[in-house]
Amino acid sequence: STVWSEMPMGPPDPILGLTEAFNKDTDPRKVSLGVGAYRGDDGKPLVLDTVRKAEKIMLEKALNHEYAGIVGLPDFTKLSLAFAYGKNADVLKERRVAGVQTLSGTGACRVMGELMARFRGQGTPIYVPNPTWGNHIPIFKNSGLEVRKYRYYDPKTVGLDFQGLLSDVQAAEDDSLFLLHACAHNPTGVDPTREQWAELSKLMKAKKHTVFFDCAYQGFASGDSEKDAWAIRRFVDDGHCIALAQSFAKNFGLYGERIGALSVVCNDADEAARVTSQLKLVIRPMYSNPPIYGARLVTEVLSDPALTQEWSAECKAMADRIISMRTELRSCLERLGSKRSWEHITSQIGMFCYTGLTTEEVLKIRGDAHIYFTNDGRISMAGVTTSNVEYIAKSIFTVTG
Ligand code: PMP
């Protein structure tokens, strides 16, 4: 026998495995509401016009395919940081943000996990919301951290358990590491209000916690990327030396290009240079350097004010379509006479709707109606269209009454 013949079959990924099952399904009614990737009202993936334009500009430049540096393309990182922290952010003027290009948001989280395990020690706890994006848990575990959960979502109100959240932040040992979703919390679609963010920032400060923002949906939540960066900027204004993972998968529709950034706000430029040097030491043996295609596209768009403005409108159109499908799905369910409250469909924000459906109900809907979404009841609103919303509502209604 070989090492290979001893290997057991691994379980399918809870989200990507769903896509595999969907692809195998031959029923014409099938609907995919699993993966968080945007679809137009025609149900097809969307390439933004601004991205097409950037591709054209890029092609005309006839660039070469040399390696990027370990930290990626400097122009991209600069624009990416301005996008998150704000063009006129003091921390950027003072050159005290260490920033590197990463393999999208996932890569940023992993690099951060590795850095923490290296400097805080193997088994250092990282507190993540309960629930959180499923991949957060193995990302940080595999980095060598111990994943602990803080209270976030209250199934009774289908909303934020703010008191529980504050209690858990308070109860954690001082100087702990906390992961927060910057906006459009995945999977719940439940975000703190501005007042709640401000209170949380104050408590995090008092507890000397290190805050790590995961920002995968800037622009996708409200349709306005400035608004969606509010929490990040507030924490920085409050003097937090935050770390930040950014992804351009959703807001630019660049999923497969793996384009994102990791940054750390430092006390001064010298500290930022040291942090950058350590990030390089983490990255180099992992994947040497990041891909350049997506970085070039984002750079073309964000370095041109006219293209940026056009992008902004396109991003808003995606967010608006999702918001209108929320309204539509909710009113369909209400029109059918559902006894449950579906108010949370419209109060939640971002790509996902956390329906409150039980795993049993989810499996029944999958079996009977061929509608695929995760067992925790999370629906990707991006897959809901004017032509399938009624079918989805009816199928949910049939199972829930
Ligand atoms: N963080 C969160 C909260 C997400 O929802 C996602 C995407 N599903 C990511 C990070 C990472 O996505 P990507 O690696 O494609 O940027």
Automatic annotation (TrEMBL):
One GO MF term attached to the UniProt entry: pyridoxal phosphate binding
Organism: Dictyopteris undulata
Gene Ontology BP, a term: amino acid metabolic process
Family: Belongs to the class-I pyridoxal-phosphate-dependent aminotransferase family.
Gene assigned in the entry: ast
Designated name of the protein: Aspartate aminotransferase
Cross-referenced Gene3D superfamilies: Aspartate Aminotransferase, domain 1, Type I PLP-dependent aspartate aminotransferase-like (Major domain)
GO cellular component, one term: mitochondrion
EC number: 2.6.1.1
